[in-house]
Design goal:
Layout: H1 3-16, E1 22-23, E2 35-36, E3 42-46, H2 52-70, E4 75-82, H3 87-103, H4 109-112, H5 122-129, H6 132-141, E5 142-145, H7 151-164, E6 166-175, E7 178-188, E8 193-200, H8 219-237, E9 240-246, H9 254-258, H10 275-278, E10 281-286, E11 295-296, E12 299-300, H11 301-304, E13 308-316, E14 324-330, E15 335-338, H12 347-356
Parallel strand pairs: 3-9, 3-10, 4-5, 4-8, 8-9
Antiparallel strand pairs: 1-2, 6-7, 10-13, 11-12, 13-14, 14-15
Helix pairs in contact: 7-8
Length: about 350
């Protein structure tokens, strides 16, 4: 079958398939960026402590799992390289999120762990115990790795999984009169198999060893090798890599403030800017409250405080860039909601809610 024939086959399959991506769960935003697609490489960037991990978890993990559970014809596997937070901590954060979703309770992780003088009441504890089935299901979808790994370790894990869940079809080519078998295309066992590879954050990867020199690469070279690996896996197997990369510290300098360049940018990526070449879609996350900006995009930040997040599509290889959204963020329970327009009277409800957080 020719490449054109396979392209037509994909077009026809999608034409007759009701679901061709996993929606982000943000209705306005997904008018321009429909959702998580197979074979797309996503990058999420923000300054340290702004909530890029929580945004990633909310959209690419929890929202994705909930959507797949509601649409069982889709098969999902998430490899989560949590290099900054232990998998146990990740689950405790998830417990806080589920308590809010199911019981409208705001129970921060510190209270769940009894790190302060306060202790949970027995009702909340019993509600947590009853969440076991949800998180048992979650672990069926997500394979957490919280030990430091190098790019090859991630590559090998994903490559082995893909070859065990599909077939590599090879073709014969002749080089200098010698026939060789090379990769042609991949046929998954399940036609709607989404495989996400989340790495948080790529600046914490263990140093890779250069195959030729046998010397350890620096962090720049290590990140670039990881990114190159993700491109190969994306192109061969249509996986969906999701990399979190910090902005350089200089993005929060006084000069950046004076020049109005505090928002995340592709030029502001830390360690290396070359990752942007590989990403299909890049999303920046920004908190104006962090810089004591009183008004932003028309919103009163003195009222919303740290509950406001601005997200912006910095790059979209297949569509419109500079698409943005204004979100209400509840950090203690990792919830994001699209805000009404700044001049809509409904915004007052969010101002009032922010005052209670």
């Amino acid at each position: 079958m020719s490449i054109f024939d396979r392209a037509i086959e994909t077009i026809e399959y999608n034409l007759n398939n009701e679901i061709n991506c996993i929606p982000f769960g943000l209705e306005r935003f997904q008018e321009y960026l429909p959702g998580i697609q197979k074979g797309r490489y996503y990058g999420i960037t923000a300054s340290s402590g702004v909530g890029k991990t929580q945004f990633c978890d909310a959209i690419f993990m929890y929202n994705t799992i909930d959507f797949v559970k509601a649409n069982p014809n889709i098969k999902l596997k998430i490899f989560y390289n949590s290099l900054e937070i232990s998998k146990e901590t990740k689950i405790i954060q998830g417990i806080a999120k589920r308590l809010f979703i199911e019981h409208k309770k705001i129970v921060p992780s510190e209270l769940i762990l009894s790190l302060s003088k306060s202790r949970m009441d027995s009702e909340t504890y019993n509600q947590i115990v009853k969440l076991k089935d949800y998180f048992t299901d979650l672990e069926e979808y997500v394979e957490f790795h919280d030990d430091k790994v190098n790019p090859y370790g991630i590559y090998k894990t994903v490559y082995d999984y893909m070859t065990n869940n599909g077939t590599i079809v090879k073709k014969k080519i002749s080089i200098d009169g010698i026939e060789h078998e090379v990769f042609d295309h991949y046929e998954p066992n399940h036609p709607d198999h989404y495989v996400l590879v989340i790495t948080d954050h790529i600046g914490l990867l263990n140093n890779e060893v250069d195959v030729k020199t046998k010397q350890k690469l620096d962090i720049k070279g290590t990140i670039e090798k990881h990114s190159s690996n993700m491109v190969e896996l994306r192109n061969k197997f249509a996986i969906t890599p999701v990399d979190i990369q910090q902005q350089a510290a200089a993005k929060e300098s006084l000069d950046s403030f004076k020049q109005g360049k505090l928002e995340p940018s592709l030029e502001g990526l830390a360690e290396t800017k070359l990752t942007q070449r590989d990403w299909d879609i890049a999303i920046g996350v920004f908190s104006p409250a962090r810089h004591e900006i009183p008004k932003y995009k028309g919103y009163d930040i003195t009222k919303l405080k740290d509950s406001y997040r601005y997200i912006n599509v910095l790059k979209n290889r297949y569509g419109i860039s500079n698409v943005s959204d204004n979100l209400f963020f509840m950090g203690a329970v990792n919830m994001f909601y699209e805000l009404p327009k700044y001049n809509d009277p409904l915004i007052n409800k969010y101002y009032e809610r922010a005052a209670t957080l």
